[in-house]
Amino acid sequence: MKKLTLLAAIIGLGLSANLSAKEDQSSIIERIKPYGSVCVQGKECAVKVPVAAGAPAPGAAPRSGEQIYTAVCAGCHGAGVMGAPKYGTADWAPRKAKGKATLYEHAIKGFNSMPAKGGCAACSDEEIKNGVDYMVQ
Ligand code: HEC
After folding, report:
1. Alpha carbon distance 7, 82 (integer Å)
2. Which of 29, 51, 84, 100 could be stapled to 76 by a disulfide with Cβ–Cβ 3.0 to 4.6 Å?
3. pLDDT per residue as tens digits for the range 94-103
4. CB distance 113 to ligand 1 below 6 Å
């Protein structure tokens, strides 16, 4: 019993020592903050996620082809990753010959190494079509 009391006293001392330590509150907040944070496109965001192709705000107008291209497609179509037809090059000539309907379908559903919607599940079909129009123009 005496041992227990002693133990409690030691723990109590430790706790009060901890509490009395003058730690700046902001450093505590910094330490316990969540690991990740969510960014909403179009809003100020502290942490910039490189591929920030999230869902548009509810009721927001569909994003333009340029916005979609920059946010989602450029990662591959800018440099021609995995044989992706490069934006602004003759790579697109044989693709255009397939017709827009096919290109839309392949962009939305995927085609070989081209992932469905370029990997942007939150993008609407219309936005993906805008992205295709932008690259094919
Ligand atoms: C992860 C890389 C990657 C991303 C991101 C990506 N693409 Fe692609 N895309 C490819 C590759 C690779 C091909 C070539 C596939 C093939 O011809 O086998 C391709 C081909 C295409 C084609 C031609 C399909 C055809 O039938 O010839 C279209 C259209 C297309 N992408 C649209 C898009 C759009 C729009 C986006 C953005 C929303 C996008 N891609 C994002 C890799 C990507």
Report:
1. 64
2. 84
3. 999 999 999 9
4. yes
